[in-house]
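Protocol step 4 of 6: record predicted structures for both targets in the notebook before any analysis. Target 1:
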Amino acid sequence: MAINSTTNEKTESEKEGISPRLWKPWKISDSGLKFLAIQESGIENGTFYDKKHKKKYPVTNGFILTCYLDQRDLPTIGMGHLVKPSDKISIGDSIPLEKAQEFASNDLASIEEKVNCGVKVPLHQYEYDSLVSIGYNCGTNGISKLLESINTKKYSEIPSAIEKYRAKGNSRRRKQEASLFFSGEYNANH
């Protein structure tokens, strides 16, 4: 038996007006993944030049599809995926774009979980994508204070906090992530 009732009380969303922001669970969008991949490689399509090792690698949709040594001399592929022995990939080996995207999805899982657990307020998809990009760059422990700031619901203050957040050596990236958070514009071009 269904029971219908009415109430004079307004829901929180009615009191505050309907927000176009979404509640969790969130998942990085295709645009967010592409933005992040370009942040990592520095280019959407073309050639990544490794200055330290003086080598060139092709880039597709922001992903470096050839295994190379990163700046710490660790084998890396795709969107900064650190190659493990279980990956069975050697320096110079290439992988298809789909495999690079699979690595990225797996590598992002802990970051996405951290953002989903840490954020207690609704977000636009692009705001979430911005936070995942920062988390991927800073690590799961590196974004805790920023997530606390998000929970104040002072959305207009967040972009300036992002620009200052752990920005040493990453000021351009933080500006782009702040712009994404504020405007929804996925511009990661260097």
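Target 2:
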Amino acid sequence: PALIAQVKQLLATGCVTTRSGKQLPLHADSLCVHGDNAAGIALIAEIKALCHSN
């Protein structure tokens, strides 16, 4: 999913890509995932694994 790609980019480069395609430096201490369903929980688990592997 696009969310996972964005998290990977943020972890690897410290930047996110804006809607216009520009690279925006971003320091993030936390991430907010909206969705209290099974898909949201699965995304959070994947994000947690990505963060712990970096």
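Step 5 preliminary note on target 2. The first strand starts at residue 15 and ends at 17. The radius of gyration is 12 Å.
Proceed to step 6 after PI sign-off.
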